[in-house]
């Protein structure tokens, strides 16, 4: 599996609900973890590898590997924080993004069991970033138009140099 990069229309589409948790989905999670780790990422959503399902994996520093199926954000704190973010689908591009400092999310794990998780700090940020992918939103979409355009131009210039 390859990571889809900026410019691919799948990154702007909403993912669909998972209707069955089966061996194929579990195998997909394993592959997603391998891809994420080989690219030194801490989160990866289905749409980033062309799987338009509401799934993502995380492995934030100091946390366990987590699998999310059909997640729903239940709460976000009013308090926010700014932190630099990057994305495996937009290599070598980083920007400071404002996000909720704490969240509460509900999802199903790889065993088909529902869970609710309260997260803060880096884990909350990673979850919100990956959740955005399920909604067709990139971290660039959370920036001002001017900043977004500058970073897109920078990315395109880098991509052309590498071709």
List segments where confidence is low: pLDDT < 50 over at least 5 consecutive residues.
Answer: none
Instruction: Compute the number of helices.
Output: 3
Distance between the termini: 20 Å
Give the full name of the CATH homologous superfamily: Peptide deformylase
- Adjacency order of strands in the biggest sheet: 1-2-3-6-7
Structural class: alpha+beta
Q: What's the helical proportion of residues? A: 25-40%
Calculate the mean pLDDT score and round it. 96
What is the H/E string?
Answer: HEEEEEEEHH
- The CATH topology label is Peptide Deformylase
Q: From the coordinates shown, what is the CATH architecture? A: Alpha-Beta Complex
Please give the domain count.
1
Per DSSP E runs of 2 or more residues, the count of β-strands stands at: 7
| Percent of sequence in beta strands | 25-35%
User: What is the 3D form?
Assistant: globular
Q: What does the largest sheet look like? A: 5 strands, antiparallel
**Which radius of gyration do the C-alpha atoms yield?**
15 Å
CATH class: Alpha Beta
Description:
With 163 residues, the chain is of the alpha+beta class. The protein has a single domain, classed as Peptide Deformylase, CATH 3.90.45. The chain contains 3 helices and 7 strands. The chain has helices at 23-38, 121-134, 145-162, and strands at 43-45, 55-58, 66-76, 80-87, 90-100, 102-108, 114-120. The strands form 2 sheets. Strands 1-2-3-6-7 form a 5-stranded antiparallel β-sheet, sandwiched between helices. A two-stranded antiparallel sheet has the order 4-5. The radius of gyration is 15 Å and the shape is globular. It starts with 22 loop residues before the first helix and ends with a helix. The model has no long low-confidence stretch (mean pLDDT 96).
